[in-house]
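can u pls check wat happens w/ flavin mononucleotide
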Amino acid sequence: MVVRTSADVSRHVPRLREIRPLLRLQMPRVSRRSRLERAATIEDLRTLARKRIPRAVFDYVDGAAESEVSAARALESFARVEFLPRVLRGLETPDLSTSLLGSASSLPVILAPTGFTRMMHHEGELAAAAAAAEAGIPYVLSTLGTMPPERIAVPASGRWFQVYLWKDRATTRALVDRAAESGFRALVLTVDTPVAGARLRDARNGFSIPPALTARTLLDLARHPAWWWNVLTTEPLTFASLTSTEGEPAAMVNRIFNPGARLEDLQWLRRIWDGPLVVKGVLSAQEASRVVSAGADAVIVSNHGGRQLDRAATPLEALGEVVQAVGSQAEVYMDGGVRSGADVAAAVGLGARACLIGRSYLFGLMAGGRPGVRRALDIFRTELSRTMSLAGAGRLDELAEGIVRLRR
Ligand SMILES: Cc1cc2nc3c(=O)[nH]c(=O)nc-3n(C[C@H](O)[C@H](O)[C@H](O)COP(=O)(O)O)c2cc1C
């Protein structure tokens, strides 16, 4: 039946043979893998992680210090990025590869050091390191890691170890020696943790390590049985590189780390470590120049993901002055708020050689272990490649040729 609705358009009752090609009816797929595959962004992985993981653990990852202003500003700074695309440049598939500390990396992305990783997923650091190795990018094992350095299976060139300056040099030295013996190639010294930041979500949630079986957590057990089953049936959650470290994380950090650390301690580390030395946690030209003059081969412009000094400067905004001050003598990386391949393109366009990602890969890990981290890295790769194509950059260094600017 044909109905005339206006002079030019007529309607008819839909016919089955017209509808059939449009139908995409499938049995709903519920496997863990398929939900991961359907995650199109890091935010999708975050949503999945939030469902699968107890609230206190999710908050430990997602949260930041005090009012969480630094963490929010880091995300907001990426929203202010503006691309100025180049057109008609005859580009084919963009080349995403780079070299970091003299070794090839398939992406300008590094998995950041994160403590307590087996709490997010029972395979913890092993899963993350394996996904980094598969992707051909470096992995930084935290001093507060929950897997021994000897078990981290990343090719030596991508095996980096993160340390703090402890109150006694002997402990720092023992960690550095163990890293060297386990084949770690680069050392990352974190300098923004003289005391613990105030992670208020953790305090409110009564978060402890290992997670305590209180009345509240027992209730949670019913809602996240798989997570609890994995915690209770795999190796106990301990710090693999440390001893005597149970309890509330902030108190532990304050027992161990050294507010009295000085530039001479960095110079001492430079003397005892032969490989590349990276300093993590500078936010100004002045501090970057000091640590580079004391022997750092690379610096990471970082405020620890907003987890230490709240309202510390925003890394993406501080990047330019650091690159200008030390970019000709040292590699400059940044982290904080990097949640997409487009964010990586922006940071590289503003002078970073690479970005570290923390929460972005942990969301993947919490959502689904090693395949979850793999998914996160696939998302980064796809987005970076697409952004470069759309922006008219065939190579990473071309992004810095005026393609990226930051709106005020
Ligand atoms: C759960 C968690 C644990 C972390 N543990 C460490 C650590 O042990 N050592 C360190 O230097 N940085 C640590 N960081 C900071 C990260 O290395 C990185 O600087 C930060 O996550 C970057 O911000 P993003 O999470 O927005 O990517 C941690 C971050 C998170 C989220």
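Residues 37-406 form a domain with the TIM Barrel fold (CATH 3.20.20.70).
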